């Protein structure tokens, strides 16, 4: 193809304003993990709340639906209606406020929506009730779009399941299991997830305090995505209410111990809780790095929205801009 014809084709596509799904890479890795949101309830424009995409073969699995997960999928040119199944770790709002958006916006008949089959959702006790109640809450939108735009009824239905720990999903060689984790006595059950595909294993901690069950589940994992809380000790002294936040999460030293025991090929922080005596403007990378390295030699990555990880013979990390990233290690 001449350069000129190619230019004309690109020009035509731009003129048409075409929104087409991303092209497949030349040689697909076994699993690709993309951080759609790495934050907490804080409504920051640069760090959305918790959501992780795991692509395994033809399956696109989304874990947690925090604020902005639809926007991140749009940025990745992945249609909302193309998500195979959704998994919720627990019912804190920063993990589910994006669910109604994913559900209803994904139903709209455009290249970025177009769900024609029920939205598959797995989550802890209360998930089915939540989807039933959402259906009632949005009854008018559903009625209007059905009568007016004639979108298929199946696309706005839920196929929701309240899960228990153990295997929850199996399709086309992909397996997802839930492990119970300890996010505090009022937040039971809370789950982490283990995804297995093509002999590879990805583990997602969910929100949790230090819990040895995660280290056990992640033994020999290719990728362990773990939450962390880095709150300055001085702030907890000055403002004891921060103790309650800290008590629901894992400190960098504790996460390092989990990583050291599990020894995954790569560890990644996502759902990064941070606060200090003075308001902290961004993830405190230095404190998080030093405190983690006090109990774990690496390799690990401090996650940011839209970072991705490919898992195959190699495990590689990429920034939001697609550039390769070098994980943090005690020995450079
Ligand atoms: Zn959370
Ligand atoms: Zn939580």
Strands, helices and their partners?
Elements (H helix, E strand, L loop, with lengths): L2 H13 L15 E7 L13 E6 L2 E5 L5 H7 L9 E3 L11 H7 L13 E5 L3 H11 L1 H11 L8 E5 L3 E6 L2 E8 L8 E8 L2 E5 L7 H6 L5 E9 L1 H6 L2 H7 L4 H11 L3 E10 L9 H9 L6 E3 L5 E4 L3 E4 L5 E2 L7
Parallel strand pairs: 3-4, 4-5, 5-6, 10-11, 11-12, 12-13
Antiparallel strand pairs: 1-2, 1-14, 2-3, 7-8, 8-9, 9-10, 14-15, 15-16
Helix pairs in contact: 9-10
The structure holds zinc ion (2 copies).
CATH topology: Metallo-beta-lactamase, Chain A
User: Mean pLDDT, rounded to whole units?
Assistant: 93
Query: Which sequence of strands runs across the widest sheet?
Result: 6-5-4-3-2-1-14-15-16
Based on Cα principal axes, name the global outline.
globular
Q: Which key features would you list for this structure?
A:
single chain; alpha/beta; nine-stranded mixed β-sheet; disordered N terminus; binds zinc ion; seven-stranded mixed β-sheet
Characterization of this structure:
This protein has 332 residues and is α/β, with parallel strands linked by helices. It has a single domain, classed as Metallo-beta-lactamase, Chain A (4-Layer Sandwich), CATH 3.60.15.10. 27% of the residues lie in helices and 27% in strands. α9 crosses α10. The chain binds zinc ion (2 copies). One zinc ion (ZN) binds next to loops. One zinc ion binds next to loops.
């Amino acid at each position: 193809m001449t350069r000129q014809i190619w230019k004309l084709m690109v020009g035509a596509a731009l003129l048409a304003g075409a929104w087409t799904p991303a092209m497949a890479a030349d040689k697909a890795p076994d699993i690709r993990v993309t951080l759609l949101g790495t934050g907490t309830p804080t409504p920051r424009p640069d760090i959305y709340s918790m959501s992780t995409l795991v692509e395994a073969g033809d399956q696109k699995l989304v874990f947690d639906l925090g604020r902005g997960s639809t926007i991140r999928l749009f940025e990745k040119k992945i249609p909302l209606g193309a998500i195979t199944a959704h998994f919720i770790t627990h019912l804190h709002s920063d993990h589910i406020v994006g669910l109604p958006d994913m559900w209803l916006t994904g139903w709209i008949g455009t290249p970025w929506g177009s769900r024609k089959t029920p939205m598959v959702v797995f989550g802890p006790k209360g998930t089915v009730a939540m989807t039933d109640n959402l259906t009632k809450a949005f009854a008018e939108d559903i009625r209007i779009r059905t009568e007016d735009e004639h979108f298929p009824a199946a696309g706005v239905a839920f196929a929701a399941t309240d899960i228990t720990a153990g295997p929850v999903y199996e399709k086309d060689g992909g397996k997802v299991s839930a492990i119970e984790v300890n996010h505090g006595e009022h937040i039971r059950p809370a789950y982490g997830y283990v995804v297995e595909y093509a002999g590879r294993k990805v583990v997602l901690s969910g929100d949790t305090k230090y819990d040895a069950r995660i280290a056990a589940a992640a033994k020999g994992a290719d990728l362990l995505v773990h939450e962390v809380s880095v709150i300055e000790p001085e702030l907890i002294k000055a403002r004891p209410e921060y103790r309650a936040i800290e008590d629901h999460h894992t400190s960098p030293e504790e996460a390092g111990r989990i990583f050291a025991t599990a020894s995954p090929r790569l560890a990644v922080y996502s759902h990064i809780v941070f606060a200090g005596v003075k308001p902290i403007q961004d993830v405190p990378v230095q404190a998080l790095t030093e405190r983690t390295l006090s109990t774990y030699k690496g390799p690990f990555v401090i996650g940011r929205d839209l970072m991705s990880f490919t898992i195959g013979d190699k495990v590689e990390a990429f920034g939001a801009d697609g550039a390769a990233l070098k994980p943090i290690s005690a020995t450079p």
